[in-house]
Amino acid sequence: MKFQIPSLIMAILERDLRLALRHGADTLGAVLFFILAGALFPLALGPSPELLRRMAPGIVWVCALLAALLPLDRLFGAELEDGSLDQLLMTGLPASLIALAKMMAHWLTTGLPLLLAAGPLAIMLGMPSGSMVVLLTGLFLGTLILSLIGGMAASVVLGARRGGVLLPLLVLPLTTPALIFGAAALDAAQTGLSWGPDLELLGAFLAAAIPLCPLAAGAGLRAAVE
């Protein structure tokens, strides 16, 4: 069974990626929301380049956080409705690894496209080109954190009444540290200060989330099925 675990994880991941390609509206909707929400800020704040450049770190991170929330309510919901979640748990694969595979699929179909769309949005907001490396590095770590915490929260509210309402209430407070560290690193890069410590804290947050979030999500999946 130990030798089958990697192949089972890859099978779940491949299945989710095929479903995401077949139903690409979720990914496209998240990316369009990310870009359009960011484009609204210049209309509300005014055309001042200096103001937009100063607020760009917070704008990019808040829009990425909200866009990553959009597909989360369907992360495990479809499998619970059609009974395939029971079949996945019957494969013998630990529930935590099933949850981890689903979280990886969420990042590949939502986090990675947001990461690719962040560059054009940052340029539109007037962010200096020298800050792009910090932006992409921080968002790479941050979107992974969002997928892990979002997957954990999605499993907790799985099967609950009005779970779609509860989901943002769980995710947003838990992802606040990632938002703070990521935006602070980007702001420090723009002002010429040291941005390394903020990214290190973001990396430490990710290191803690990698083992803990799948374990909690696995417990949520078992509780939802039982």
TrEMBL record:
It is a multi-pass membrane protein. InterPro entries: Cyt_c_biogenesis_CcmB, Cyt_c_CcmB_bac. One of its GO terms (molecular function) is heme transmembrane transporter activity. Keywords: Cell inner membrane, Cell membrane, Cytochrome c-type biogenesis, Membrane, Transmembrane, Transmembrane helix, Transport. One of its GO terms (biological process) is cytochrome complex assembly. It is found in: Cell inner membrane. Pfam families: CcmB. The keyword Ligase does not apply. Its main location: membrane. One of its GO terms (cellular component) is plasma membrane. The chain crosses the membrane at residues 27-46, 58-76, 129-158, 165-186, 201-225. It comes from the Bacteria. The keyword Metal-binding does not apply. Belongs to the CcmB/CycW/HelB family. Required for the export of heme to the periplasm for the biogenesis of c-type cytochromes. This is Heme exporter protein B. The lineage of its organism: Bacteria, Pseudomonadati, Pseudomonadota, Alphaproteobacteria, Acetobacterales.
